[in-house]
Automatic annotation (TrEMBL):
Family: Belongs to the MPI phosphatase family.
Biological processes, Gene Ontology terms: cell division; G2/M transition of mitotic cell cycle; positive regulation of G2/M transition of mitotic cell cycle; positive regulation of G2/MI transition of meiotic cell cycle
Catalyses which reaction(s): O-phospho-L-tyrosyl-[protein] + H2O = L-tyrosyl-[protein] + phosphate
Main location: cytoplasm
Matching InterPro entries: MPI_Phosphatase, Rhodanese-like_dom, Rhodanese-like_dom_sf
Protein name per Swiss-Prot or TrEMBL: M-phase inducer phosphatase
Compartment(s): Cytoplasm, Cytoskeleton, Microtubule organizing center, Centrosome; Cytoplasm, Cytoskeleton, Spindle pole
Gene that encodes the chain: Cdc25b
Protein's organism: Rostratula benghalensis (greater painted-snipe)
Length: 248
């Protein structure tokens, strides 16, 4: 009965009656024997379906690019060079391909709760200078243009003195909706281009969910000056126009 139950060519509708009639004489034709004879004398397509070897036809060779894609898909929770898992707890954000952290997690980093594991944390404020000057997270560097961030991070990459510790980069803008995520992708793209896959200068990148707009009301003491200047401030319309032209 166990062998009949495991037979891949036998449908469940046939298995059930056989299990109920175990004492049936062995020399009589059973649905199983009839099915087996049919599979032996059947058409080539039926024989192929019954042969376990057919499963081997599914294997194939993969190109280097396909292998890289498979690695990326299989290690979504690992940092960019697949060497270890992400250190900071992440949350869902607007862009599924990026790793977001909450304002609470940002404060945990700022207050040294991960100092035993992080040697350097670079907070990249992607807002325009007049926004940054109106109030920013303590220690953040203002890099609003692609050439700025490329010069700061990639011309002379930051390397930890202690190989067991990490260098992480956290991007944000006003809402972390467009400018911050775009800059994060730019750094990863440029980093990939100047390294042999999968090595990276900065394998661990994050985006601050909600940006400065969400961070400031909750943690003003971690900002300097303790203020918030929006991008569409009435007094800086000309500055906004100028920087938007530059970024095109």
């Amino acid at each position: 009965c166990r062998q009949l139950f495991r037979s891949p060519s036998m449908p469940s509708s046939i298995i059930r009656p056989i299990l109920k009639r175990i004492d049936r004489p062995q020399d009589r034709d059973t649905p199983v024997k009839t099915k087996r004879r049919r599979s032996v004398a059947g058409t080539p397509s039926e024989e192929a379906a019954a042969e376990p070897v057919a499963w081997l036809l599914r294997s194939r060779s993969f190109s280097h690019e396909e292998i890289e894609n498979l690695l990326a898909n299989d290690h979504q929770e690992l940092i960019g060079d697949f060497s270890k898992a992400y250190l900071l707890q992440t949350v869902e954000g607007k862009h599924q391909d990026l790793k977001y952290i909450s304002p609470e997690m940002m404060v945990a980093v700022l207050t040294g709760q991960f100092s035993s594991l992080i040697e350097s944390c670079v907070i990249v404020d992607c807002r325009y200078p007049y926004e940054y000057e109106g109030g920013h997270i303590k220690g953040a560097v203002n890099l609003p243009m692609e050439q700025d961030v490329e010069e700061f991070l990639l011309k002379k990459p930051i390397v930890p003195f202690d190989a067991s510790k990490r260098v992480i980069v956290i991007f944000h803008c006003e809402f972390s909706s467009e400018r911050g995520p775009r800059m994060c992708r730019f750094v990863r793209e440029k980093d990939r281009a100047c390294n042999e896959y999968p090595h990276l200068h900065y394998p661990e990148l994050y985006v601050l969910k909600g940006g400065y707009r969400e961070f400031f009301p909750q943690y003003q003491t971690h900002c300097e000056p303790q203020d918030y200047r929006p991008m569409h401030h009435e007094d800086f319309k000309e500055d906004l126009r100028k920087f938007r032209l530059k970024s095109r």
